[in-house]
Design goal:
266 residues; alpha+beta; Ubiquitin-like (UB roll); Outer membrane lipoprotein wza fold like; 13 strands
Amino acid sequence: MRFISLLSFLGCLGVSLTLHAKEPISHTDFSAKVAISHPPLLIKLEADGPVRLDAMVLQALHSQQPAISTLRIDWQNSRLFSLHEPFPLQKDLLKRLAQLQDKVQEPQVTSWQQLRNELRKRRFAKRALIPLDPDVIRTVSGHNPLLNGEFALYLPYLSDSQTVTVLGAVHHSEPQKWKAHYSARDYAQQAKWINTTLGELTIIQPNGEIQTHSVGYWNAHPRTVLPGAIIYVPFTTTLFSSINRTELKHINQQVVELLRHQLPRE
């Protein structure tokens, strides 16, 4: 493997991670846009052949003077995306949410529209749900793949601002400051969740892991919500709802899956 281009510059994270090459690159070639911290230092890596994952990560960190230590990186929140792979889920899901809008009943109508707006303005790409810490990559079998194609890599610092976002059947979807002692229920209450009798919430941890947290008064079992996590409050059927329970469950699952693949926001 030989890197043939290495550029460092300051710029906008949202642009760097969603900008595609003017000419499609061959799958025998490698290209990566790397964003380090926020506001980001942007680096472009190119090679004339496939590249190992650990080589890409270390090349990005060592391109700076002095080199950036792996100890400064928040590996839980680090993300790798395949920009060359089709990812139609956002378009398909938004279309279905729009079709069902008129079937949603109060008090969830506004939240449904709010979710559509949130998913429309966010950007998504196929995420590789694998560890990115070079120390882990080298010690776990199968975690150091050869990369062909076009990628985006996001490497935040541990010192970057830390938030948690609540989406779904809530009144407020603004990011909240992460608090070590907060449970998923605490964040949902801050977001003014609509159905306060829910027994479970879905958490998308920053590494992409999906968890179900019990939050009801009768089954509460507080679990850790990591900084950078997304909490999804599911939509539920109401007395006069014309959306059947099976379809609504599928919609909730599709939203969660989409959110796993969200590109970092500006």
